[in-house]
Amino acid sequence: MNIGLYFGSFNPIHIGHLxxxxxxxxxxxxxxxxxxxxxxxxxxxxxxxxxxxxxxEMVYRATKDYSKLKPSDIEFNLPQPNYTINTLTYxxxxxxxxxxxxxMGEDNLKSFHxxxxxxxxxxxxxxxxxxxxxxxxxxxxxxxxxxxxxxEAPIMELSxxxxxxxxxxxxxxxxxxxxxxxEYLDEMNFYK
Length: 192
Hints:
By secondary structure, this protein is an alpha/beta fold. Helices cover 34% and strands 16% of the residues.
């Protein structure tokens, strides 16, 4: 089974995440996509994050109607901060018959050369890149790399940061969230 790993804080998960993941699982050789809820991204401040299990609950609610999209709490019990290489190594040991690939936005590919053991990641895993509008250059070493696949997915310029700010400002952002996630956020009064 070929699993695409979509890492993120998903604070909150929104329709942009679902559109990208569903597009990739339907238009590539990926069999499933696991939304890996990251407890603490080394590049983000922890204070703005909802509790790990609240974010996992939102991902569960967002993906429950899609058989090929799954929530994953695999990083919750791994040493922090979480580095992708450590998670990949752990998953490969736990599921030796599965093939794991990474899913990332084009903006992340621009800083990929700064990731811990990025060469090892590329040596052992494929990376599926979806388009993002962003500044900066992609390192030439990643041009035409046999393990990096650019996927023509819809460009989704929607961010969790924008959604959190809009909720705090009292704006109606319901169309930007899966219905089950909107209901949960509303019920729990998150981000207000």
